[in-house]
Amino acid sequence: MQVILVKPVRKLGKVGNTVTVADGFGRNYLIPQEFAIRATKENIAKFSSLQKDMEAKNAENKVDAEKVVAAIKSKHITFITQSAADGRLFGSVSAKAIAAELSKLANVPLNYTNVLLDTPIKFNGIFDVQVILHPEVITTILVVVAKTDTEAQDALREYKEGGKKDAQQKEDELSAMEAENSKQKEVTEEEDAN
Fold it and tell me: Do 61 and 104 sit in the same domain of this protein?
């Protein structure tokens, strides 16, 4: 199915692009949510006359999103939760909860679709979470999850001072653990063979 995008859609295109999508995606999501219209001759002619207005509105929405990014930049959200001794939460911090706190912080209504979080947060710690305010405006916010305010402040201070392990260090530790496990597995297999 061919559709004309009337709003920008992440990983699909900008306003005015004619794209081919799966029938179900176009019929069940893009068209009802008013992200796109069918690419018929009438709609193409109608859209070409309205395209400048839509592009201007999109540019205005982008500017508004950039203002929100400026308001939340270098800020963080803290969640005080109950957790086990090993840091596992009794429950989780979801995209919906993060969106609610962000709405308070930015004074702009946001919902869970604005927060890019694959799975809910289930451990204490500091997390970089992506926030999509406009398909062309994506920012990252710091989410701190801790047992107490003091613990959250300490973790944040340590993070800002550079106490955070970099990705390479974590990767090295993980590969060392995997190597140790494979050695133990080989030893066990040799003993079983004898």
Answer: no
Q: Domain end: 36, 66, 96, which one?
A: 66
pLDDT by residue (tens digit) across 120-161?
999 999 999 998 888 888 888 899 999 988 888 888 888 888
Cβ contacts of residue 80 below 8 Å, gap of 6+?
A: 146, 147, 148, 149, 152
The residue range of the domain holding 110 is 73-165
pTM of the prediction?
0.63
Single residue among 66, 90, 111 that ends a domain in this structure = 66
